[in-house]
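ugh ok fine here u go
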Amino acid sequence: MSLKFLAVKTFILCPPKNNIFPLFDSEGFSLEESDMLCIATKCLAIHQGRCVRIGTVDKKQLIRHEADWTWEGSSTLTVKNGTVIPFSGIDESNGNGYYVLWPQNVTELLAEIHRYLCKKFTIKNLGLMSVDSKIEPFRRGTVGVAQDIFGFNPIKDYKGKEDIFGRRLEMTSVNLADSLASAACYLMGEGNECCPLVIIRGAGNVEFGNKFSMANTQLAKEDDMFGDILNVYN
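structure:
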């Protein structure tokens, strides 16, 4: 496997609303069959106009309104669309005076982008991910997370396969989407890099298709090792 991550530098997509599709005409942006493309959630949100001028709303109320679940301690921890993320994903960085919210109906938007890109580059298999950064318990610094996906199976299942000593695996699966999203998020950066697109080439053995969604990654509370700790769904 020859895995490559190719960061694409683009022009600035300015809030409060700006069309994302011209980003795909950026110099150096080209897709090949079986590529995967990570797109910063912020760009999708700006495309939808999901921006609120700072100073016009109370941020804590906005966070609560956007969250599916909120825990307020020394900081505000939330669950949004099945993802544990601070502040409901609301971000002020690179917002130019706006709060940038998480995008809505992302599956539908990624499907639209998928159709556009497949036609533009004459390809059939393409995986898309909406990527953002989050924090992990007991770890300093951010890591990437796939907010939503389209066009590929986000889970690589090892159940029934053998390990190096011939032991049959019963439970193991790999979250392919979040694993790749984290590396892509590192290339996107958190400052003034202006690289909201990252092409992943040569991932190997990816199951492409339009029947998959982030629902493939979700666990019921009773199956989640952290369910009792977070107690999110009560």
